[in-house]
Amino acid sequence: MATLHDLETPALLLDRSVLDRNLSRMQARMDRLAVRLRPHVKTTKSIDVLRRVSGGTQGSITVSTLKEAEYFLEYGVTNILYAVGIAPGKLAHAAGLMRRGAELTLILDSIEAAHAVRQAAVTFPVLIELDVDGHRSGVSPESPLLLEIAAALGSSLRGVMTHAGESYNCASTAAIVDMAEQERAGAVRAAERLRAAGFNSPVVSVGSTPTATFAADLSGVTEVRAGVYMFHDLVMAGIGVCEIDDIALSVLVSVIGHQADRGWIITDGGWMALSRDRGTAKQRIDQGFGLVRDLDCRALSEDLIVMSANQEHGVIARRDGHSPDFSRYPVGSLLRILPNHACATAAQHTRYQVIEETDPTVVACWQRTNGW
Amino acid sequence: MATLHDLETPALLLDRSVLDRNLSRMQARMDRLAVRLRPHVKTTKSIDVLRRVSGGTQGSITVSTLKEAEYFLEYGVTNILYAVGIAPGKLAHAAGLMRRGAELTLILDSIEAAHAVRQAAVTFPVLIELDVDGHRSGVSPESPLLLEIAAALGSSLRGVMTHAGESYNCASTAAIVDMAEQERAGAVRAAERLRAAGFNSPVVSVGSTPTATFAADLSGVTEVRAGVYMFHDLVMAGIGVCEIDDIALSVLVSVIGHQADRGWIITDGGWMALSRDRGTAKQRIDQGFGLVRDLDCRALSEDLIVMSANQEHGVIARRDGHSPDFSRYPVGSLLRILPNHACATAAQHTRYQVIEETDPTVVACWQRTNGW
Fold it and tell me: I want to staple B241 with a disulfide (CB 3.0 to 4.6 A). Which of A333, B46, B127, B236 is the partner?
């Protein structure tokens, strides 16, 4: 069996024990709230990860690209929600997926898009996207436009969906609890308005990892979408959604040099391997381009972060500006970097080297899909 | 022939006319300075692009990963400089490339790495990496360590190399001219010290796109490495290394909705397609996640940028905060986004849709390599 020392760096590591723990915790929460989980695969993009989520029964998923839909459809996953407003230019591709057996639900937030979908070659199920937090897309639950779009959709209408993306910027757990209720209440209110006007709205879909983690009540909601909870990351830890030790993903890097005068350890883990995501920059603790851990993913006695990054170079330094003990990190030694944002870091790689918390061997290599 | 309207968005566009112009301009500069260009392929990672650079004779290249070396070797490019300090764990892979016909030059900046290289199964040519600007790796041209590493390398030593990465942060052309001289002088000085101590140093390799563009003199330098000049980007335009119209790369996106109250045009070009690079954030003009152009890559009469980005959503707004004329950007219409950083944006994609400035048809699809 290969060990971490046999991998060529940089390499993306996935700790399956931590993954499984994250999956169980979220599933238990959903069971308690009596709501169905429709996992978002945009973070993980791997059938092997999905098989751990659904425990063999592949269930229904959320995707962020038609490429993901196509990939998972090839593995027999048919119930797919494409959770980005449909561009009319993608309808032919989407129709092809329907003909190949997908039950592909689309979302939209305009009359123009509704007309385009109704003119497509196949009948798609459609959810109207709602804006509950001013974060990006969607119509207000109270807007007249909601009913106009519903009328334009006719028999395609299946209900409503929203994503409280602003929950990523919440400063406290209490604020996330409030945001979860705002997300739930907005979606349920929109569905009620549709029903009062004579439309069907069987689906009330909400979700984000922070709101799914802290929602106190999900009455009226039929499904929750979340994705990053599978891997977690430093941004999630920074808003209290997970602990650092819940982060299942890390990047294995090699030390390639030292700049002793400046207190720098140079590695081959640059922004190409870590991503350029600086999501912790505006949080209470700025983790640079990532937090440094030892080969067993334990905290180092020195507080090291990736202070800066070039394409294939990471510059590691102590957070307090003092010089690290270079003798502990000789040229050729290995370190693990916990990512700011799991979705962004994983997307820089084509595969996961799968390990277990208590075992230094690589137990599997899981492929992932990328691109469009 | 396909037109831009036939492409599924987001798609990476490469304007071949602009590429060719950028290539000719740099080659003419190098000819004038009487120095050889060793193009860095880390930005473009495509044999089809390299063929335009070298005009059929494939010459010698610089790479940032062994994956790039492997990819180009398969196409017959053998003279390869791997310009990231060698990690001992990669030596077996590097030796394999040598056995397959590569003349793979390594770089390093420590005695430990020199010992590891000398113990490898094959004899590699090696350059000592110099630090001329405090940017990241390398030994000082004046340091005693330079001669100690040379002694440890023995017959592997071929010379010195440096990269003035700080040139990306220069505030004026005059500062870049000075940085180019600092880069040249440091490299030449180190080579002279080596020669004075009885070592060979036939190679004196320098380079970055800014210093290559503005160097006044390159006496004593034997080769220049540069890569991003082929595509250029908003960061290069921001420091005066190119004009906006010299940017050969753009991302084609579709409008998927409007948030009229907030003045937002929502597209399917999020950070996954644009990258999370915010390299212009600290420049005089912050271009957000990219500058918006029309389908022919002309400036719009409204000054639009990608203000924010989620994974598969871009939020376009006017820089002055006023509401754009939404009627000009209906749902389904196409826009082009010029990237902050070509290396980062191109790496989010697996292929280039090749177009010509004066022609709306897609003339070719060029693959690129990614990862490790």
Answer: B236
